[in-house]
Amino acid sequence: MSDSDTRLFATPAGVRLCPIDQIADGKARNFVLQMRAGRFHGFAVRDGDHVAGFVDQCPHAGLPLAQQLDDYLTPDGSHIRCSWHGALFRRDDGVCVGGPCVGQRVAPWPLAIADGWIVTAAQSD
């Protein structure tokens, strides 16, 4: 496996992803960041002026959550959904509330809003 194929699970702080208005309120968007050490896959869920970020990997099977680009939410938008096994996760903290991995969580990806842009934030301890 080359460095470009290595799957990363964190990003450095300060990477500008997109203006917040490029994600519709109540929707989610996928991001793939190619870095020297490998590739990071994550997604952001927007709620007004707040975004929650998550690593795009189901804790149950290790697969990406969405089978189709940006399709991370249930049809009514109330939960994050794994399209492979139907697990349901809370939008704010990624904790699984239904399906094969209840009590586990989608790993958080720290994001912030700076000058109207969604940016990666520092990992908290």
UniProtKB/TrEMBL annotation:
Residues 15-120 form the Rieske domain. InterPro entries: Rieske_2Fe-2S, Rieske_2Fe-2S_sf. Gene3D superfamilies: Rieske [2Fe-2S] iron-sulphur domain. PROSITE patterns: RIESKE. Keywords: 2Fe-2S, Iron, Iron-sulfur, Metal-binding. GO terms for molecular function: 2 iron, 2 sulfur cluster binding; metal ion binding. SUPFAM superfamilies: ISP domain. It comes from the Bacteria. The keyword Transcription does not apply. This is Nitrite reductase/ring-hydroxylating ferredoxin subunit. It comes from Sphingobium scionense.
